[in-house]
Structure formats: structure tokens, C-alpha cells
Amino acid sequence: MPTSGSGDYHPGPVAIQPGGHGDPHAVHHPKLQHHFDDMAQQAEASTLGMWVFLVTEIMFFGGLFMAYIVYRYASPLGFEEASHELNLYLGAINTAVLICSSLTMALAVRAAQTNQSRGTQVGFLLVTMLFGFGFLGIKAYEYWEKFHVGHVPGPYFVWDGQYPHAAEQFYSLYFAMTGLHALHMIVGISIMTYITIMAWRRTYDAEYYTPVEVAGLYWHFVDIVWIFLFPLLYLIGGHY
Amino acid sequence: MDTITTTTGLNYLNNGYGLKSWLLTKDHKRIALLYLWSVTAFFALGGFFALLIRLELLTPAADLVQPETYNKLFTMHGVIMVFFFLIPSIPATLGNFLIPIMVGAKDLAFPRINLLSWYIYILGGLFTIVAAATGGIDTGWTFYVPYSTAASNSHVILAGLGVFITGFSSILTGLNFVVTVHRMRAPGLTWFRLPLFVWSHYATSLIMILGTPVIAITVLLVAVERGLHLGIFDPALGGDPILFQHLFWFYSHPAVYIMILPAMGVISEIVQAFARKNVFGYAFVAFSSLAIAIIGFLVWGHHLFVSGESTYAGLIFSILSFLVAIPSAVKVFNWTATIYKGSVSFESPMLYVFGFIGLFTIGGLTGLFLATMGLDVHVHDTYFVIAHFHYVMVGGAIMGYLGGIHYWWPKITGRMYPEGLAKFAALCVFVGFNLTFFPQFIVGYLGMPRRYAMYPEEFQVYNVLSTAGASVLGVGYLIPIIYLIWSLKNSPLAGPNPWGAKGLEWEIPSPPPTENFAVTPVVTQGTHQYAPSREVGIAH
């Protein structure tokens, strides 16, 4: 073996200190998973994990935003004309709905963090979900409207403006971007359902509220994506 | 420290039997083995397609298969080797097994997500296999539009979804590694005490996190475009195919570094163990991994020199591509300096290191040919490119993978492997590889284009050499599969540290217990102290 006879073997860098980290006799929180040392480490890992995941989400939506930049740069007037046909009021209402849902989400996290009753926690979560459903309902109505007037790209696309080509591209991006966003809303509502059930079972308190916080991070992210989508899709045609 | 485990003999392999204990495991070591079996299966499948390609190219005429079938063969070879073998190969097997141990943790930060990533990988693989079995795809692994949106058959959606799905397995692996390295390090294990294997996997994870979502949205848009006729990339629908190329290579060039960086981490470990020296310039090697990851994101435009990219954009991408060679060269020089005056022994993992350094150097330097705008026009889409990236991916990444598998096999299984056979296999791989791909540099430079089933007769001698080399290479891959399986029952026990190597993984029993460490280790110096530290040296 390689080390034999070398005569200068150095002991490894490890020193075991019983009673230090990982001492099996310490009392653990029931929600502490075996591979973490303490609740703080577990919470830090979970939130960092969600932040990293949100970075991947930014890159995921980033591809679509890149396509938007390229095509809008190619035909700015066509994009303005196409954007003019979107319902600005419904878009604005939906923006307000999502901002309110972010507020109630933040309040839900705070309710868990400050040991408030399960009624308060569940209440804020339910209102958040309600706003989410409201957003999706309005979005569905807008989609139906676009189907109705023939603004869905493909063989049945109808456009009587100056730039039918750019308009079709705009609506391709509109459906791809808002569709992907709506998909994220649906995932968000599913996560909220789980969190609400767990909150009803009194899972979350000041010592353990990471799942609420992490779900909240996701919810806020999906809201922020909409904050970018709204001006890029609805507001660019507003000035003529 | 291992009193409990030695008295009961309990380790991660015998701690529970039966299918369920494997398919529902949350132990990173068992998940690593699930990945090991799966990537080996995909490697065999991709290798089978390569075999058919080489057999077809033995003669100038398209006589073994029709050109249409040939297109499907090289597409499936590329898709399977890139997305289902090379990208998960080292990170998901060796990385999964070793990173928690190397940072002194009991597991990765998210064990359930780790298991989920394997299931996602298998699901994506099934989609791709179904696409291949029910008619195949002929777009090339690059899925270039409009081949993939207008010209090809509809299995593109299935294969595209396969790539999309498996991308999430890679994202989740990267996420798990990043959080583990940040939050799970043992007390005293500072960043600059980490093994270089961990540094290189950290850099790899950054690429997985930042790059993979972009390919995911890109292939998703191709699928949506085919299915719903949204005009994003297809010029017939008003899209821009060049945008597809930009988005595709924004991931797929950095993906090359997903393949090579983990191999570089493996090489950094092995070279220290068998030169019995600390690595030369630890911080430079560590930071060169990050530099490769960062600069690697800024070079994708060199794939578009002949796609109508502006000369100025091309110039910048060319300069940046030259820049990324610097951190790669730093590593090669530092490994060489590590070997210099080391007490080198030539066990089979070290043979792979020598192979890696030589072949990666050739692969890297020919990359500079391709980063040169004028020369690229001449060799673009020829066998020169094929030879270049196989020198990096096969000569680099797979050499590192095989070296790593051999080096850590005693740790993973608790048993040695037959060293004589291993040396012979390493020799087969090296000779076979060069015989396969070196002639392709020449025939490519002479003008033989890639992706054709037929070629002019004057190129036949190079292709015959190539096919002969591929056969030797195939034998070189087959032998380790046989003797490694054989070694599971028949080889002598390895003991905790058969190589006399340093690092936390060599201080626990082989195979490791399920919890890795009975007590969390407290680290008091760099984990790789082969030489006495300077203070101790003065005391001598």
C-alpha cells in the first residue's frame, strides 16, 4: 500500500468531540430531520434552497423575456398595435389582486412567526388563495375573450390592423408568457392548499414556520413575474 | 470513531434489503448507486448507437443503414450521451456519494429532492426511449429549428419533453449541492479546507442552476410551437431560428463545462493521492473552476460564427472563448506541477489521470482553432469539430469518470478491483480512443462534413482506422463493467483507506455506514494534507 514505509504518516484532520454537534442525546424538535444539527440549520437550508430555486425560475422565464426583447425590437410598432387590443382594465385589476395577495401572504408568514392562533394563520392563507383564484378567473375570462375575437395565434388568427404578422408574434408570446405564469399560479395554489391544511393541524409556530416562509417566497416570486409581464404586455400600447 | 459500525458490521449496503429499501431510499449513497446503474445503462445504449454509426461509416456507401436511419442513429447517440450520460455521470454518482461525506455531513441538504431527481431522470429517459423506439428523431441532438419545428416527424415533442424533464433532475442535483456546500459543512471545514472535488462540483452546480432552465424553456417552446403553432422559432410562423440557436447554446455550451468540471475535480483528487503531494496552487485550482463556470456562460456565440452573427459579436465571442482556455490551462499546469517531484505510483486511477491530462490538452487546444473566426469557417460542421469535442467529452469527461469510479470503488463497495485487468482496460481506452478520434481531426480538416451516411472514397482509410479504434475503445469499456461486477463478491476487502489517501471519505469505514459519521467530525486543518504543513516542516 502506498503509505507503508513512508514513515511520515500524518494523522487525519478529524478530531471527534463527543457531546458537540450531532450529539444523539440532545432533545430534538419533532420536525428536525436527522441529517441536520439543529432547527436553525434546517431553516437556513430550506430558505437558501428556495432562493436558489427562484434563481432557476428567473432563468426559466428569462428565455421568454429574451424572445420578447428580440421580437419587440424587430417590430416595435406592431407590438404596440397588438398590445392595444389587450384589456387594460382587467390587467390592472389583476395586478392589484396579486399585490393584495402578496400582502396577505406576508401576513400569513408573520402570523406563524409570531405564534398567532391557527384561525389567523389559516384565514390569511385562505384569503391569499382566494386572490389567486380571482386572478386565474379574470385571466380565464381574458383568454376566452381572445378566443372569441380570433386573437389566438395559428391558422384561425384574425387581425385587421396594419401589422398582422407582428401581432401574431405578440400574441404567441402573450399566451406563452401569461400561460406559464398562470401555470405557476396553479402550482402556488396547490402548495398553499397543503400549507393551509398543515396550519389547520397547528403545525406552525415561532419555532417552526419555514414551510410557510418558503411557500411565501415562491408566491411573491410569481407575483413579481406578473409585475414585469403587466407593463411589457398591457402598457406598451397605451400611449396612442 | 467507527466502533459502533465495526462491531455491528452495519453499513449503507446491508442496512436493509429488498427493492423497496432501494427505490424509496433517502440515503445519498444508495441514490448514487441508483444513478450509477442508470447512467451505465444509458451509456451502453448510447454506445450501441455509436457502434452502428461506426459500422455504417466503414464503407463510403450508405449500405448498412439508409441515410434516414443514419440521421436517427447519430441523433439518438447525441441525445442519450449528452443528456442522459455525460451530464449526470460524475455529479449524480460520485458527487452524490462523496459530497456529503467530504463536507462532513450525514446527507445532502434535501434527501427527498435527491431521490425525486433520480425519478425525474428516469421519467425523462423513458420519454426519450419511447421517442426512439416508436420512430426516432432525426434533428441531431441540437434540435435546430426548422428541422425540429417543420421538417421532422412528430416524435420531436416526445424527445424534447424527455430533455425538458431530465433537465429538472439536473437542476435539483445542482440546487442540492449548492445548499449542502453552503449550509452543511462540518465545524472547522472552511471553504479553503474543502477538497477540490467539492469546489469543482460547486462550480458545476452553478452552471446547472443558471443554464438548465434556459434549455428547458427553449425545448418547451419548440414543443409548444409544434403542438399549438405559436410562432416563436419557426420562420414560417414568423419566428427566428437564430434565436433558438442563441438560447440553445446559452445552455449547451456551458453544459460542456457541466461535463468536464466534475471530471477535473476527480483528477485533482487522484493526482494528489498518487503523487502523494498537496496540489500545486490550491487556490488557483479552486478559483479556476469558478472562472470556467463564469466565463463559460459568455462564449456561446462561437457556435454561431457561420449563422449570420455580426462580425463584431463574433469577435467578442472569439476573444471570450480564448479567455476560457486560461483557467483550463491553469488546471493542467497545476496538475503537472503536482506530479513534478511527487512520489508517483501508477495504479489504474493514475493512468486515467495521465490520459486525461494529455487528451484534454489536445481537446482544449483544438477548441482554440474553433474559436478562431476565420479557421472556424473552414472546419465548421466537419469531423474536426467531432474530434475536438470527443477529445474533451470522451478523452476528458469519461476518462475522469472511469478514473473516479476506480479510485472510489473500494470506498463505495468495500472491495478492491483486479489491478492488472484495470491497467489493461485503461490502456485499451487510451489507445482505442486516440485511434478512433485522431484520424477524425485529419479527415475533418480535409473537408469531411459531419452527419452524413456517405462520404468520398479518399476518406475511407481514416474511417476504417476510426472504426477499428472504436472497437478497441468498446473493449476497453466492456472489461471494467465485467471485472467491477465480478469484484463485488470476489475481490479482497479494501479497508477504510487502501490508497493511503487524505480526505474525510477515507477516514470512515468502507463501505460507509448509513449515517456516514457516527459523530459529526470537527475539522482542524485542510482535508488534503499530504505534506507536512510549513510550520511542521520547520520543526523537523
What is the element layout, followed by pairings?
The complex is a heterodimer of chains A (240) and B (540).
Chain A (H helix, E strand, L loop, with lengths): L13 E2 L23 H36 L1 H8 L4 H26 L4 H32 L14 H37 L9 H26 L5
Chain B lengths: L2 H6 L10 H5 L4 H29 L10 H36 L8 H23 L13 H5 L3 H29 L12 H33 L12 H35 L6 H14 L15 H29 L8 H24 L1 H7 L3 H31 L5 H27 L14 H31 L31 E2 L10 H6 L1
Helix pairs in contact in B: 3-4, 3-5, 3-16, 4-5, 4-7, 4-8, 4-9, 4-14, 5-7, 7-8, 8-9, 8-10, 9-10, 9-11, 9-12, 9-14, 10-11, 11-12, 12-14, 12-15, 14-15, 15-16
Write up what this structure looks like.
- The complex is a heterodimer of chains A (240) and B (540).
- Chain A is mainly alpha-helical.
- Chain A has six helices and one strand.
- In chain A, helix 5 packs antiparallel against helix 6.
- The N terminus of chain A is likely disordered.
- Chain B is mostly helical.
- Chain B has 17 helices and one strand.
- The longest helix of chain B has 36 residues.
- Chain B is globular and about 65 Å long.
- The N terminus and C terminus of chain B are likely disordered.
- The interface between A and B is large, with 56 and 69 residues.
- Strand 1 of chain A pairs antiparallel with strand 1 of chain B.
